[in-house]
Amino acid sequence: MDLGIAGCWALVSGASRGLGLGCARALAKEGVNVICVARREDVLAEAVMDLQRSCPDPATRIIGVAADITSAQGRQRVFECPDGPGLRFDIVVTNSGGPPPGDFRDWTEETWLAAIRANMYAPIALIQATVDGMAERGFGRIVNITSGAVKAPIADLGLSNGARSGLTGVVAGLARSPLAAANVTINNLLPGAFLTDRLRSASSARAQAQGTSLETVLQERTNGVPARRLGSPDEFGAMCAYLCSQHAGYITGQNILMDGGAYPGVL
User: Fold this and answer.
1) Residue 146 sits in which domain range?
2) Of 35, 42, 165, 204, which has the most beta carbons under 10 Å away?
């Protein structure tokens, strides 16, 4: 299927690995020019080279910007990238690593504000900066990578539960504003268990704490998924690319859960 987005410009944050990289790869394969943003310049440079090599069309632009997208300075650096489109992005994929787990009794005001800046305000700031231009041009796609914990909160992930739920509420109203009539959609992608470096790292720490092997912990996680496997970043990226396509203009304000059936609820 031709997604009809070749030649568009996309901004993908957290794009050096994991789910962000999967989204950037899927868009690049469709001929979308991608600005990839991540904090670590070395890892980002390697990801950009890999993406450029995998592009069917060598004219597709893949540009890496090493910046902290959760800061105003980082966002400014992205928008002022000399080879980029400025604020004229057609597609924005927001993605930021979740805050650490813990006991809510230990979280200070600054702990909460840091989580909100990264997982609620940063996506809102990117939307604020780009959405009116999308509406004027008659096309725009925004996808926020949040978490399955928005639908099924996890006790020790209260920082993530709170910040991401706040973003979900803002998007629910914004997506149903006059932006929808201007062919600008805003949706959230909620990942469950995907085989990423982040999941491996968390599983490794758990294995060490339990005195068992990483393979055992990963198998336990897999056993909790009805599909009996962990998701891959590339299939997550494929869903993201579809939501960004010309064919998905009637999908907006939705929270799309990708978890292999792990969430047991009806709604």
Assistant:
1) 9-193+232-258
2) 35
pTM: 0.95
Please check whether residue 93 lies inside any domain of the structure.
Answer: yes
Spatial distance between the Cα atoms of 233 and 230, rounded to a whole number of angstroms: 10
Position 13 in a domain: yes
CA-CA-CA-CA torsion sign (106, 110, 114, 117)? positive
Report yes or no: 166 and 116 within 8 Å, Cβ to Cβ. yes
Query: Average pLDDT of 113-141?
Result: 97
Residue 168 token pair = 């979900």
Predicted pLDDT of residue 254: 97
Q: Is there a contact between 139 and 183 (Cβ–Cβ < 8 Å)? A: yes
